[in-house]
Amino acid sequence: MRIGIDLGGTKIEGLALRDDGTEAVRLRVPTPRTSVGVVTAIADLVRDVEREAGDEGSVGVCIPGTLEADTALVKNANLTWLNGLPLGDDLEEALGRPVRVLNDANAFALSEASDGAAAGAEVVFGVILGTGVGGGLVVGGRVVAGANRIAGEWGHTPLPWPRDDERPGRPCYCGRSGCIEGFLSGPSCAFDHERHTGEVLSTREIVAHAEAGDAGATATLDRYVERLGRGLGQLTTVLDPDVFVLGGGMSNLPGLAERAEAALKPWVFSDRVVTLVRQNVHGDSSGVRGAAWLWPAERQGG
């Protein structure tokens, strides 16, 4: 049995997967606001999952951050009280067994590459389009974390081929301006709509207005798709993945995967482009499923 844990800002979700990928148990608990509380809550959740499933399992944990390559300390976590702490080591001590920890975007990519929208593909890039923009890279069934443990963080690269009215771009919390996140996150889409129309609308409202025939809302979504195409086109030239899998709230825009697949092609350094763009299969469960798949995926890769 494989147990996955998804550590989020408000909840911690635990999932047990059988060998065939079907779910045995799923439980949730609130996220404590201290590092000691988080370790205790995860350890208790693992034991509760195992008790209900009637079996023990390997444990993988996905977090909204990553671990330093040399020290295994948490960094870049939006649960800031975890930064600088040896979360993996603390969990291993609490559970008395090995625990593997990975970034939540990487978990999403691993889940969709294992038994989701990109099952069977060799090179998979998971694209997170939500409150922020991130991603994860899976090659041959294994997560590619990178030397700095930041592989997939394309949201903090510049929007490629910017137009005059896109320069210098919105200031980003990373300290730079013009990052892809400043164009393709949900809040950035709403900001772009307000900038061009003067209307303050949520992304849901923008979609509804576009479906009702509103020209301004339609133009906002067209700009979004075109910018996404540029971003994915650049990634295709650099990584040449078989499949992009879209996740996050913005991935639910109607027809986005199909439109993005067409929009990326003009920006790729190739006269023939076969790269696929797919909507995710597992939705909000991709993170916890990816954490569960972490052990067998790495075993398969040696």
For the record, the CATH architecture of the largest domain stands as 2-Layer Sandwich
Structural class: alpha/beta
Per DSSP E runs of 2 or more residues, the count of β-strands stands at: 12
* Number of distinct helices: 9
**Overall pLDDT level:** 94
CATH class of the largest domain: Alpha Beta
Main sheet, how many strands, which sense, barrel?
A: 5 strands, mixed
- The neighbouring-strand order within the major sheet is 3-2-1-4-7
Strand content: 15-25%
- What overall form do the CA principal axes indicate? globular
Could you name the CATH topology of the largest domain?
A: Nucleotidyltransferase, domain 5
Low-confidence stretches: 297-302
Helix content: 25-40%
What does this structure look like?
The protein is an alpha/beta fold and 302 residues long. The chain has 2 domains: 120 residues, 2-Layer Sandwich (Nucleotidyltransferase, domain 5); 162 residues, Nucleotidyltransferase, domain 5. Helices cover 38% and strands 20% of the residues. Helix 3 packs across helix 9, helix 5 crosses helix 7 and helix 7 packs across helix 8. 42% of the residues are buried.
How would you summarize what this structure contains?
The chain is α/β, with parallel strands linked by helices. It has helices at residues 35-53, 87-95, 104-115, 181-184, 186-197, 203-211, 215-239, 256-264, 286-300; strands at residues 2-7, 11-17, 23-30, 58-63, 66-67, 74-75, 99-103, 123-129, 133-139, 142-143, 243-247, 276-279.
